[in-house]
Amino acid sequence: MEPIAPQKADISINFLSKLERNKSTRVSSDTLYLIAKALNTSMESLVDNMPAPEKQSTGPKQIELNNLLNSYPLNEREMLSSHIIGILEKRH
């Protein structure tokens, strides 16, 4: 990937340096968008190139669960999500 000019992505040189050295693992979606735009690439390609553990994979069952949850109205999704979280927290 080509080098990025910090001013082109509206970020500081210090922050860019931390990103390049994996010293900063949290990047807002707005900042990620600006970096991707400055590099003439997609946000997805930047995330796909991130080292683990920042990059998380989603398995087919999780995708199925997300799709099923998304088929419900927001208030029901929140209730169901709360129940699922409760079940998962009991297992720890």
UniProtKB/TrEMBL annotation:
Transmembrane segments: none
HTH cro/C1-type domain location: 8-46
Name of the featured protein: Helix-turn-helix transcriptional regulator
Species annotation: Limosilactobacillus panis
